[in-house]
Design a protein that fits this description.
With 323 residues, the chain is α/β, with parallel strands linked by helices. The chain has 14 helices and ten strands. Helix 4 links the parallel strand 3 and strand 4. Bound molecules: flavin mononucleotide. The site of flavin mononucleotide has 27 residues, from strand 3, strand 8 and helix 9.
Amino acid sequence: MFSTRITKLLGIQYPILAGPMAYISGPELVSAVSEAGGLGIMASLSYPTPEALVEAIRQTKALTKKPFAVNITLLPAARPVKYEDYFQATLNEGVRIVETSGRSPEPYIHMLKNAGAIALHRATRTRDILTAERAGVDAVTILGTEAAGHPGQEEVGTMVRVPVAVNAVKVPVIAGGGIADAHGFVAALALGAEGVLMGSRFMVSREANIHDNVKKWLCGLTEADTILIQKSIKNASRVVRNPHTLKILEMENRGATLEELLPMISGARGRNAYATGEFDEANISVGQCVGLLSDIPTVKEIIDRIINEAKVIMKRLHTLGVD
Ligand SMILES: Cc1cc2nc3c(=O)[nH]c(=O)nc-3n(C[C@H](O)[C@H](O)[C@H](O)COP(=O)(O)O)c2cc1C
């Protein structure tokens, strides 16, 4: 059921991937997604050193024998990062699915291919997935503006991004941004995607390593409760609208410099909220699909629910009169 080029390529049961989430996608969440038949993706740069990443990979391998991936986000980080070391540590540990995001994976593809690894790349623009395909990746993920994290500057939705991507590349396309339930899953397949990638849905799961207060708060929000900040510094970021993020937007609108913005947009604020459950002064990343989230299930419940409800939706669609 729901077998696609993505399930075959990655050796997974269902074409459902969990997008990496900094400081959330550690061994517990990643292994839970893979155990439930999807693909967990570890957020490698949450780990301050390649050695710390190795430790997290080893913990994950102790929790699941199924495939999981490591993401390496190629964005300028607050601290200097030698990406090669993260790739090498990942490959040395025997991980054979590596996802990149942030910028072209081209400089690292030879390392991955020499090691016999599968290369996935996630991007927000059609031209960037074309670049990744030329560089030799095995599959691409395209994100619509609904997505949490960095959904790009262009503000094009998943409904348009996905079919454009499917027409543009030959490698299989995974759809991300705004998908949180069976309706989104079936819609993505209907748009031509061969898999889905979800972040926000897994953020509000039992296994996500964040304070329950944050998860409960997210469950009460609507689809209109996120805003895009950091567009002025060309690093658009979708976050929950709260007094803190509205202040950031106001600073951007009156032309604040990067130096002025940095203390306000620091990732440490989100991390502190994850730990303490105090979210008023934090920029919490979440997608528009937060409006679809009203409970805190286990990862297995999320995936089973999507698959079971997707079957019902497909049957209903058949009753519309297709022979
Ligand atoms: C709390 C949170 C943290 C995230 N951190 C990262 C990250 O570190 N690197 C990255 O490439 N994407 C990150 N993302 C983006 C997700 O991997 C994924 O692209 C996105 O959540 C998909 O959109 P959705 O939330 O609508 O499902 C994050 C998303 C969330 C919700």
